[in-house]
Fold these 2 entries.
Entry 1:
Amino acid sequence: MAKTRRAAAAGKASTSELGAARRRDLLEAAYTLIAEKGLEGLRTRDIAARAGVNISTLHYYFGTKDALLVAIVEHVTDKFGKERQPAGPGAAGAAAPPESLRAHLERAWRSFQDHPHLATVLQELSLRAQRDPATRTAFRAVHKEWNRGVEHLVRQGARAGQLRSDLDPRAAAAAITSFIMGAMLQLGIDAGAFDFHHVSGEIDRWLATAPGKPARGRKA
Amino acid sequence: MAKTRRAAAAGKASTSELGAARRRDLLEAAYTLIAEKGLEGLRTRDIAARAGVNISTLHYYFGTKDALLVAIVEHVTDKFGKERQPAGPGAAGAAAPPESLRAHLERAWRSFQDHPHLATVLQELSLRAQRDPATRTAFRAVHKEWNRGVEHLVRQGARAGQLRSDLDPRAAAAAITSFIMGAMLQLGIDAGAFDFHHVSGEIDRWLATAPGKPARGRKA
Amino acid sequence: MAKTRRAAAAGKASTSELGAARRRDLLEAAYTLIAEKGLEGLRTRDIAARAGVNISTLHYYFGTKDALLVAIVEHVTDKFGKERQPAGPGAAGAAAPPESLRAHLERAWRSFQDHPHLATVLQELSLRAQRDPATRTAFRAVHKEWNRGVEHLVRQGARAGQLRSDLDPRAAAAAITSFIMGAMLQLGIDAGAFDFHHVSGEIDRWLATAPGKPARGRKA
Amino acid sequence: MAKTRRAAAAGKASTSELGAARRRDLLEAAYTLIAEKGLEGLRTRDIAARAGVNISTLHYYFGTKDALLVAIVEHVTDKFGKERQPAGPGAAGAAAPPESLRAHLERAWRSFQDHPHLATVLQELSLRAQRDPATRTAFRAVHKEWNRGVEHLVRQGARAGQLRSDLDPRAAAAAITSFIMGAMLQLGIDAGAFDFHHVSGEIDRWLATAPGKPARGRKA
DNA sequence: TATGAATGAGCCTTCATTCAT
DNA sequence: CATGAATGAAGGCTCATTCAT
């Protein structure tokens, strides 16, 4: 792998409804397996088996393992995007009350809770992105969009008086997204020693207008 | 790999001075290669080749690739530990003036700058730790020590009046270390869109007693 | 195959006596299999099996199927060279009586008779040489040497008064070697319709000084 | 391939005009690809692609790759036959002046020059014929016809007094056709070291009545 | 202590072929 | 007639590991 000898000749295959379904099945299978075994332990045979198709079918749809991996990024983007949708700038147009930063952190947390694989897969892909240009390109979009979303939240919070007015929205967003990613990493290493709720509460307090009392948690 | 067919029978070999040197050479070679190719692309043959020994020699010293990987964690711990030493709790006993949080962030940053491989290797191992118990166990120590170090810093900063007094030191430390790890990840994906200095400055401002004006940076 | 992704990293492996033997075994196995199944049907697994070693051993010694194929050319060169040795320019230095052209043709014929695979393998490689530069380079040497040998024969024959004096030795040699190769091809297609003895006798007669009577053969 | 699991059930399909055209397109595509990539590199998908049809269509018309290959022989026979037509026995009935042997060689040469693929394909099929009975059977006809044609030429030349009277027409024809085939092989290996014109001139001289002076060519 | 040689298990990919539409 | 989708059976190659020396 790694050095794609032949640019994926396939990928075009998804004309029919059924073809699209097969593609989704394969991507979903790959997604789950990445979470379970890591990219290091990902085998095309296993993907095909879990999707209930022959391994040749996988190549028929994606051509190459590398190509499938790139497609996975988009797949995850969709998954992840849907989770964060309510916070997206687009949703802000409605009369819906702006979501607080705290709520965003909570929802991000819940999202990872509900989709236990998401965090792992995201990290795996992040790492791969550092070495593989194709993955990187595809992955940047996710990050940009995510950062922009949080930036928007911060701006709203500040305007609404919920957050300190001296915040640099862009930098704050970068800090927050970084924190979330790092938190996932630490949780993976030592779930018992890291209380997401508690820590995210602390962060919220840093940014809040009225500095409430520090929460007394059992661990942090 | 993964399922070690035969528990590492070796590992005992490091009695002599020369043996210890060979071990170090191999570990250093592995360390560099992990940074360059990732765990996914790590090959025992390459490690041996870079260390200038036969591949059998590698197995003589480490028995198994898995065993070598565990040893790598300790190796990295040492490396990383030395970098952070001045900030370590142990160093606090001296009369040395307490380091500011800002300084810590800056130094962490510089440390990654000086050792460009460190961040990558740390991430790779973090990810592996999530799946491999042996790695996890070995890796937890690093994180715990690191978190404790930062916690100590926060406590000092608060006591010295440089940081807000209402901080939860433990949670703050967890947040900060998480941020640093996440920042490394984001930097790997899109170095151009992430200004570590600027963002860490923002964080520093959140925790500082006197909320200075937000820095006007080009990007964040 | 075809486009060697990685230039054969191996090939160096033949230091010891035993290693050289393994190499020879593998080449001999490949040689036989090419004759039996053709290059089209040549499988590395079969080669290894016939040589009585694991397929990995084959790659240990040759690195690539392509590399092995190039090595085969040299192997065949040796085989073929030994057969033609008496006619070689080098052998002419001795007091040995010069070999007649007829004798050369006869011996070439007997050589192919004794080594039934030789002709087939030679043809397969000739064909491959037209497309693969590596094979071509290695194969040109054989042809050049062969042509030179026959040219020498013609010159000697003319000088000795056995062959017509107006021959262009170089052109005659080219014609003769071409004839032999083409004859092998025709024999492969329709052995019953091609009597090598008879035809080569005819050619000999064309070049001879005293035009003897045409041989009355059963078929030609 | 090789061992056809299911005897070609198709092949019957060519009733309509359009069907015949499709067949021709596919054969022509296969013919070109054999010349370009060799039988070893011939892929049914490539053939279909070059013919502008789906790969299933190929199987609809020929059933099997093997069957298509047999059909190719006939296709080539036609092609080759048309080129040699003026020299064919059939054409001899007319009052057309008999073609000289030299002219035949020249024309054969020009034919290969004009149809650069022909020689290659012929050789590929010759080789295949040695192993595959079906191909062999189909291919023998071509050779027989060709040999008979040349034999006819020789006979005419002798009768007309242009060629030596002591020739064995059958053997001479076999020698000449063998030479041509071998020459094609050598040309493929080392075009720079083989001057067809010069060499065929030499042969012509051997057979001619009046032994002219050997041509002084640059190379042979 | 160190290594050259050898291997078993497995990986990604290819390709001729089939079948429902 | 023609095709898109799917597959079984390899095929070349890799890699961690072993073992005699």
Note: The longest helix of chain B spans residues 133-159.
Entry 2:
Amino acid sequence: MKKVNKTATREDVAKAAGVSVASVSRAVNNSGYVKKEVKEKILDVARSLGYNPNPIALSLQSRKTKQLILYQNEITAPYNIQFFNGATRVAYKRGYSIFLDIHCDFEKIKSHLVDGVMFSLDVLAETYINSVGANYLLPVVVATNDASLAFARPVHNVIIDNPKVVNMAIDYLMSKGHRRIGMVIPERGRHSAIRYQLWKTRMEQEAQNFRGKMSIQELVVRAEIGDTDNVLAKRVDPPLIMQPSDDNFANYSSFNIGKRAAHKYLEGHSPATALLCFNDDIAYGFMSVLKDNNVRVPEDISIMGIDGIYLREWFDKKVTTVSIEVENLGAVAADVMIDILEGNKPKYMNWTTPKLLEGDTVRDVN
Amino acid sequence: MKKVNKTATREDVAKAAGVSVASVSRAVNNSGYVKKEVKEKILDVARSLGYNPNPIALSLQSRKTKQLILYQNEITAPYNIQFFNGATRVAYKRGYSIFLDIHCDFEKIKSHLVDGVMFSLDVLAETYINSVGANYLLPVVVATNDASLAFARPVHNVIIDNPKVVNMAIDYLMSKGHRRIGMVIPERGRHSAIRYQLWKTRMEQEAQNFRGKMSIQELVVRAEIGDTDNVLAKRVDPPLIMQPSDDNFANYSSFNIGKRAAHKYLEGHSPATALLCFNDDIAYGFMSVLKDNNVRVPEDISIMGIDGIYLREWFDKKVTTVSIEVENLGAVAADVMIDILEGNKPKYMNWTTPKLLEGDTVRDVN
DNA sequence: CTGAAAGCGCTTACAG
DNA sequence: CTGAAAGCGCTTACAG
């Protein structure tokens, strides 16, 4: 009667049931001893008062929130969506929830009610670990493109096996008879550099095998775009409604990087018969410009992507790609995170396996 | 020294600085009085101990978490992505974070550390309010398609002005000379029924105006698909990797509804010269099947969508659509939510305004 | 300007 | 089987 508009607490229940708060706890949690009839009485009273245990008080007591945060820098990127999807579903099954944070204002981590921090992109994790994360010691799990990346403090990794990814793509293209296999990459950006290097090494080697003389550089298509490593600094307060005409959107969505790369490609005279794109988004941006310019895929040029985004199914042409099974990546990351939190010591390095997905964008030139 | 691996508390700081915990509070919060030198000393000590106020304890004290939850049933739907994007950005600016929950296991709300509950879809909100939400009294904000929907308890709404949306689409098509304007809708589903009714009413009226005799039913294309109102019950534990071949994905993504509708359309002999699709996703699914069957858009049939999804920019053809500015919808919802929480009484009914976006899918038949 | 004390809502040894 | 008490980490009147 007194606290009519406040939610009932364990004390209200205790008074109404004529017992101590300790007994209410035991009854509600089904723990310890409490006489059967008393327990039922307590639960009845609790129900009639609409009693719900206060989750914040529980968290203060248990020192855990069962909540995690996932930092991602771009909500519309299919990779990010799928990563979150996989992670959140595993988390859900294990009793956790995940915040998706697209602002990456890392200082705010200190006020978030979470038990752990996840990243779907290693450069973000690095920025975090080198700033707040250096002293704020929540466990960290990161999906990384670079198994050799050393963070300032030990961090659990889920590793995209890029050597396998890139070679799988090239093997496939070669099996279809391609030899002059180019690569489409953003102008800069460290994580694209990894795939680029792998491609380059392999191409140099193939040049020897086939005793041809390929100019590696001729085979590269670089999108002219600013430093993608540093997207954070530049994405301050983008406009609310996403329009590709907005600089922030245009510059940093991979799709638009692909479009820019295509213009570059059309201006030049690439000797490639097939192009491996840094990811599927870029492949689709690239192909959309080719189409506007009456260049046919795969008749005139074969295209491959990397990632295996779910949007492949939405387009008229399914891009041939190496799937890194992004949902699985997120799922493993969540599993590792929760294992850490629950005291099962997971490995620091967790490798995932890519998988070739055929599509409509590679021509057999054998 | 003692608690070397535990994070420092206000008590550790107090001891190390030789003051009381109350003074530490005052220093850290910059509130109340504390002598300048003492304050500096305290802050120094706090810094050297790596002290961070425990956010859970703060929440227990303040009775707020500054965290919200947004329930959505499908993470890959562009509408949901954009809604979240708008909402989370407003929330961020106002100091809040948002959980994106795609499981909609509403019972779990009781263990979530949140101050309020948001929905981007009214049917979900209704399910919630009729179950846990009936007694668990966190404030609720819902984006609704139906301004007349009455919830079991008062709930704040952000309203999609569907009468305006549908008539704006039809006005546009008529301005391009179309008279036999059909509609593509899922077989069932209450929120598609709203747009369908509005379309029907208008078409009946136009039939009189033009003294023609249109058979309304001939103009409807219905996707044969189960009850989309009840997606929750059926989406138990879908497979991790999204494959359109999976039933769960295939049945409930609007894109696939559009594909099914197209097959229906191709089997029949629709007299329509233009089709208004329930949403853009359906429009794209529809068009993808038309393309496979060599039906040209807009030469053979004009297509319009509703929503204004960001993916319009990714496709070769931009669908002509009525944008409901989904990011804005989310932004308004978050603003209303936070207004409630901060004691500024927002309105219960908040209308948003649609906007026509021209594209490549409507032919001028004048 | 400063500290002791009560309180936020819960849990869990401890004593009975 | 049950209750009084201390504690989780913080805040804020209240008294000095």
Note: Confidence is low (pLDDT under 50) at residues 1-5, 227-236, 243-251 of chain A.
